[in-house]
Amino acid sequence: MHNTQYGEMVLDEDDLCDLMMQGRDVASIPDIIIDPEIDLQRLLDAVEDPGAMMTWQRPDDSGISVAGFHARQQAIWFMPDEYRDTDIAKHVLDLCHTPQQLQRVAQELLLYQERDLFDLLRYLRYLVAVMRQNGVIWGVGRGSSVSSYVLYLLGVHRIDSMFYDLDPGEFLR
Fold this sequence. Notes:
173 residues, 2 domains, elongated, mainly alpha
């Protein structure tokens, strides 16, 4: 949310989602100013029918490969453009403070890139931001994911895999 030069509040996508999820009819709120870059109809449709934004298709019914299926599903993940357009490798490398961290992150990023998982990293960055913004509490870490220092830097878990000398290959094998 931000104010115009005249002090009027302009609602962004997060503000609108909050209002709609509270059951408020956004269209009936007087003098509401909505950021013009927001596709309001898409948001209204999503609240009306949350499944409308997703076109789930079973892989065995489509005749496509597993990789093609995953690519199709990832293409319809809801994620604001600022996260979708992020250079995730640069973002994670910028979070490093030591040469050892840079080396570890570079090694892991190559593994993520080989598996075409950069969109997943972008989505996890978005998911963590949303959870933090909404005060959602999530676990310290679970399973082999804690061996990924990249996920630690993104805030997905709270286990410093470099401190515990965990092998990143455990997560991405």
